[in-house]
Write a structure and sequence with these properties.
Elements lengths: L3 E3 L4 H6 L4 E7 L4 H16 L3 E7 L4 H6 L7 E6 L2 E7 L4 H7 L2
Parallel strand pairs: 1-3, 2-3
Antiparallel strand pairs: 2-4, 4-5
Length: 102
């Protein structure tokens, strides 16, 4: 599955109303660690058909980032049944991101 670009318009449908677990990557285009994590997030999206993976640009969607307390990027939040159940920040190995999904 490919990565879904999340916006104010589709966040509720794609994340909060999803019947799948959703991994959301809060990022910005100018963020070095975010760029390092991009291929990892893409890999996870391709390998894990059981989850949905979305990316949310905090510069374009500041309200959503503020709502979920995103203070530094990259921040990864796992949503299940419309609730944020896991949150972690910073560049990390793929295994650490996958661990959040368990």
């Amino acid at each position: 599955m490919s990565v879904v670009k999340l916006t104010t318009e589709n966040f509720e449908q794609e994340v909060l109303q999803s019947n799948q677990t959703v991994l959301v990557d809060f990022y910005a285009d100018w963020c070095g660690p975010c760029k390092m994590m991009a291929p990892v997030i893409d890999e996870i999206a391709k390998e894990r058909a059981d989850i949905k993976v979305g990316k949310l640009n905090i510069d374009e969607e500041m309200e959503i980032a503020q709502k979920y307390g995103v203070m530094s990027i990259p921040t990864f939040i796992v949503f299940k049944n419309g609730e944020a159940v896991q949150k972690d920040m910073g560049a990390k190995p793929k295994a650490a991101v996958l661990e959040m999904l368990n």
